[in-house]
Amino acid sequence: MIALLAEASPSYAVPANIAFGVIAVLMTFSAIRVVTAKNVVHSAAFLVVVLAGVAVNFILLGAEFLAITQVLVYIGAIVVLFLFGIMLTRAPMEGQEEVRKDNWLLGAGSGLVFFALLAYALWDGFGKDKIPADLTPTDTGALSDAVFGGYLIPFEVVSLLLLAALVGAIVIARRD
Amino acid sequence: MFLNQFLILAAILFCTGIYGVVARRNGVMVLMSVELILNAVNINLVAFSAMTGNLAGQVFALFVIAVAAAEVGVGLAIVLAIFRNYRTVDIDEVDLMKG
Fold it and tell me: What is the DSSP letter of A139?
């Protein structure tokens, strides 16, 4: 990231990049805390920080409708669902789950190797590409035209998928 | 803004999610790690959408959010069913089909 900042061009958007740097550090820290926290409720709280950071990234990229959807669906609904899941399963509240050594090695190893691979591929493939400096926020009308125009059938399929998932979740979780 | 700064942040989130899926044993934690992975994908889709000016990336990010909602609903229902039958959410102990 520092190397990226060093080779900055004159059209460098300073406030957006400072915002991005702060949010990126916060998101990285929180994401690592999500997967390492002993207390599951703490993990859910850190997950909120990561999801909010993703919403900020969407705004930086000009996708305002998606940022609002992110806050509504993820922070508003999915995190609450997670908290309900934690409560209903009475998951260990503190320190009862320790990560096994072989699991830890496998997880950290595969994660690090995959990150190295991704970082090399991204650096090699997109090292010079830039987000256009004259990026304007996406018109929500244009987005809805796309969803209800060319992507109408996938949209309806997603609606059916949500309905099926809702019915399936009730069937699986029902006491009988 | 460089494209890579978003892509590398997404890669960090993705690999953190992989670690969580593989290493953690609590079923709810595994689902949270899957959410991290899906969010990394969303950042990538929107970043490429902003770079090329093509709206398809944002439309697919919307679809990913919808599918993630469905996944969490069914996933938590499965975790609840496991808890009811095994009195645990440790997915390492759910090995009925282990050969």
Answer: P
